[in-house]
Amino acid sequence: MLAAAALGWRAIRLQRRLERSERDRRRAADELNRRLSELFSLQELSYILSGSLQLDRIVEQVVRYAMRFLEAKGALVALAADGEGEGGEDADRRRLKVTAAEGTLGPLRGGSIGADDPGLIARSVTGERVELVHSTDTEPTPLVAGIQVASAAAVPLRAHGVLVGTLVIADPRDGVFAPEDVRLLSTVATHAAIVIANARFFEMVHHAKEQWETAFDALSEGIAVVDTQGSIRRANRSLAAMLDSPIPSVIGLDLGTALLGQSPALVDLLAAARRGERAQPLVLRSAPLGRALRVNAARIPSPEQEASVVVLVEDVTDQQQMEAQLIQSEKLAAVGQLVSGVAHELNNPLTSIAGLSEFLLEQKELASKDRGHLRVIHEQAERASRIVRNLLTFARKGPAEQARVDLNDVIQRTLTLMAHDLKLKDITVEKVLPTTIPEVVGDRHALQQVVLNLLNNAAQAVADNTPGQRRLICINTSFDDRVRMRVSDSGPGISDAVVPQLFTPFFTTKEPGQGTGLGLSITYSIVEAHGGRITVECPPEGGAAFLVDLPPAPPTPPPTRDAAGREPHAPPAAPLAKRTILLVDDDPAVRRLVKALFGREGHTVEVARSAQHALDLARTRTYDLILADARAMTRDHLFVEQLVELHPGLKQRILVATGDVRASTDEALAHLGLRYVRKPFNLRDLLDEAAQVWAAVALS
Questions:
Q1: What angle do CA 526, 527, 530 make, to 5 degrees?
Q2: pLDDT digits (tens, 9 = 90+) for 130-187
Q3: What are the residue ranges of helices labelled H in 464-564?
Q4: Which of 315, 331, 358 is the last residue of a domain?
Q5: Which terminus has fewer CB within 10 Å in the chain: N or C?
Q6: Which residues are 103's β-sheet partners?
Q7: Could you tell me the residue range of the domain that residue 608 belongs to?
Q8: Which range among 189-193, 352-356, 480-484, 607-611 has the greatest average pLDDT?
């Protein structure tokens, strides 16, 4: 019995061992299957994550697989902003954004979590390992403010020591996290952090590349990357536009040949840049493009011994033209000042020569031969005086005048001014200027500038004619309902493509430095301001023709008549009284002329050798006429200005002789309302002006 009982017991124990062994085997098999499943899932997740660099897709896959591994009810990934997490624990406590969320945590997608949030998500970024929380009857588990779960695990996502974000799993199977679940979660988090960091880095590089390429193509300057042979390897849109080709066609071209043709200077610049030298930019004239280019080059740092070079190409044609125009404007202003000063200095000797020769011609005792010589002197002095007046007209500045202007006279004066230059260029001028042309109303000086600009353009056009081809300018005037002027030339003419831009400011067809592009624009503005029009024609026989039409001046009102219909006669002139005249002029020849002229008429002329001397004389004596040079100064004030201020009653007795065209002098005379006569003057003009002064004094 005992033996049987022992055998039975042994059988039972063996049975139990076998059952326990089977259970262990099944448990081991189940554990092995689970681990294999996790391994395959991790491998699948790794394959999916490594196959994409799109951050949104990566975090969605991490959340989805983490829920599947742990059979959780919810999961999310919250990422730190780009660049946050660097700099230690304080930097870690920054705002998180829930980038992906599934299951019960899905409503949190797209939300933000501040560093001061009391929940598990914000707290997890300060740790280094997985943090597990479970709800109790006394203390619930807050995930974020206002949201609680039964149990959750959060693991910070760190890659290369930098916080990327946090992975949160809520409510796993059986409500608890087994040790193997925690290990799996840590493995997933480690792999996910690296992939997310790489995806972010790729996005940063891609964004920077897009920004660089956008800036590269947006620059107005041309940019090219050239290799050691000088061939273009990369180019932006501006460079392709300069070369008038699409970007693909530019790649591979030799930069120097494409831009400049043969240019040793550019070759030297590229060689210096490859050596790492900082050479000065070059400004070169491009024959193929017909433009002026500023070229600069710099070496692109590279571990290779032979580095590429980036070349900056800037079109500076317009800038050079603008600089040339500013320089030209400054030159013209300087010439205007010079002309004013020189003309004034010439006026005094010309006044003396013309006046004294005229004075001598009136002497009866002269021999005929001497009279002939004096007449030549007088005519040449008058000729020089006309040239000076034309120069002053050209250089004169100030407000536009409104007066009746003889357009034919303006043309004649301008031709006289240009006569020498036209003769040197062998240019013939044919003119038809009928005497029946009515006057126009406007500024004589501005209208002379119109004529001068048109004649200058015509002269420049015919100057390039080939030998044997006639250099001819025709200018004529006519009148129907408007006063018309036509200036034509025998030059090469104007192309149809240029005509629409002809009156545009700064537009010129001339080579750089040969024209400002302002002449026709200014001409157009002046003509328009006078109520006129200017047009251009291209005659069939060649050349170009500019037509200007202006409104005629209104007719002069007829003289008034008395009750009997007769024109009133001027009262008989009073006998010429003897006058006392004060002359203020520092030129001895002018003083000699004035004394001789008025002395012949029986007048007394006293001379003040300085402005202060004249003021002293005016305090002690009464003069019928004070004839003063416009430049007479008392320290910082014009003599006439100070004289009027001290003695207002003398204003009507002052006559100013001026050859000065400075704006300050004109403004002072206009402000004072003084009569003046322009130098060089002839004797009759001076006597007439003096008579008008005395007549005005007599009527006052």
A1: 90
A2: 888 776 655 667 888 778 888 888 888 888 778 888 898 888 887 888 887 788 788 8
A3: 519-529
A4: 315
A5: N
A6: 74
A7: 580-699
A8: 480-484
